[in-house]
Known about the structure:
- By secondary structure, the protein is α/β, with parallel strands linked by helices.
- It has one domain (5-187): 3-Layer(aba) Sandwich (Rossmann fold).
- The protein has eight helices and seven strands, in the order ββααβαβαβαβαβαα.
- β6 (136-139), α6 (142-151) and β7 form a beta-alpha-beta unit.
- The longest helix is centred in the N-terminal third of the chain and has 13 residues, at 21-33.
- Bound molecules: magnesium ion.
- Residues 10, 12-14, 140-141 line the site of magnesium ion.
Amino acid sequence: MSRVTKVGLDFDGVVAYNPFRVIRAPITGFKRKILKKRGLKFFIPHNRWQQFLWRVLHESSIVPAPGLQLLREMVKERKIEAHLVTARFNFLNQNLERWLGKFRVRDLFTTVSVNNKNQQPHLFKQEIIKKYKFDYYIEDNLDVVEYLEKNNRVKICWIYNLVDKFLYRNRAGFGYLKKALQWIQDQEK
Ligand SMILES: [Mg+2]
């Protein structure tokens, strides 16, 4: 029997989508392209106010990304095994569980890995990819994508936003989850 294809999925920006992120995108794009700043040191909110603001920014309006239906089908037909990975910081976990319950997606995932020790996101994700031996990993943060590509054999699918797509025209990526899943489906035929 052939081994089931394991797909790891990032939560924010891949499984869930926050329309307000579009506002942040040009700033990140500017920093990266013009100032040549790489964002591999992530800000960790420590005090109550920072955590409050962070929570409002993250939780305000996150909705399921287009492609969740296809994910459901692929899992049901046993084409893939889905694993959720989130580097969200500790204090956001409760919201994550609530969200997964609300949209009835918790049971889609064989495992849910949460960044309980508040590690840097790219390091945490690398650890989980290795732990479960994913065949594919879907991620929206380009800095994380580049880091993981360098350090793993896993195929990384990048979900871009419009600004990133404009700045990095030659880089292969997907507009949203459904496109990435369709591509994985084609690879596995
Ligand atoms: Mg993300």
